[in-house]
């Protein structure tokens, strides 16, 4: 009726390891939730400040900077929500946040007032981020419990077994 401890497929070490990992994941989720709440509170404060900056006299440069900063905060919030749901960092959202952040700095400072070497570095940075954004479409998804290396190894072993069985059948 009951299995003895010796017949249990999980050892005591594995059981403790699973508990430790679950506890650490719970603590990590609590940290992410507190970050979400703090970021949301900060976004509310930024929206209030943005509406106050819309009052006359209107400074278009300041309003644009506030709107872009708010968009960055929204994207960061979305990144945290995706992490809570799927336990992974979304490459696409992280790259989008980086692109908007770099463009915000260029727009706020102004291209004409920025040193040429900084403009060149920003262009190179944006080019790399754009390439990464395009390449991520062809990257295999690894977040649904699929380990590409394990899958390739499994296919190779199956092919190898099929070749052995064919050579034995001849």
Please characterize this protein's 3D structure.
- The protein has five helices and no strands.
- With 170 residues, the protein is mostly helical.
- The longest helix is centred in the first third of the chain and has 42 residues.
- The two termini are 48 Å apart.
- The model has no long low-confidence stretch (mean pLDDT 81).
Distance between the termini: 48 Å
Biggest sheet, open or closed, and with what strands and sense? none
> How much helix, percentage-wise, in residues?
over 70%
Per DSSP, the total helix count is 5
- What is the H/E string? HHHHH
Quickly give the structural class: mainly alpha
Chain-averaged pLDDT: 81
Task: Name the beta content range.
Answer: under 5%
Number of strands: 0
Write down the overall geometry.
Answer: flat
- Rg result: 26 Å
Low-confidence stretches: none
Give the tags.
5 helices; 170 residues; mainly alpha; single chain
Q: Which helices and strands, and how do they pair?
A:
Blueprint: H1 12-53, H2 60-86, H3 91-109, H4 116-135, H5 148-169
Give a brief rundown of this model.
This protein is mostly helical. It has helices spanning 12-53, 60-86, 91-109, 116-135, 148-169. The protein has 5 helices and no strands.
């Amino acid at each position: 009726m009951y299995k003895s401890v010796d017949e249990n497929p999980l050892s005591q070490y594995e059981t403790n390891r699973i508990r430790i990992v679950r506890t650490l994941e719970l603590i990590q989720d609590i940290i992410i939730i507190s970050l979400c709440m703090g970021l949301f509170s900060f976004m509310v404060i930024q929206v209030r400040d943005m509406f106050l900056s819309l009052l006359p006299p209107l400074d278009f440069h300041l309003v644009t900077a506030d709107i872009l900063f708010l968009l960055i905060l929204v994207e960061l919030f979305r990144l945290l929500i995706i992490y809570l749901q799927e336990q992974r960092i979304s490459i696409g959202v992280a790259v989008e946040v980086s692109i908007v952040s770099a463009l915000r700095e260029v727009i706020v400072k102004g291209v004409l007032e920025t040193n040429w070497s900084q403009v060149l570095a920003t262009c190179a940075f944006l080019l790399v981020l754009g390439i990464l954004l395009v390449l991520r479409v062809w990257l295999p998804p690894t977040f649904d419990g699929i380990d590409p290396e394990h899958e390739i190894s499994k296919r190779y072993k199956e092919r190898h077994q099929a070749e052995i069985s064919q050579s034995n059948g001849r």
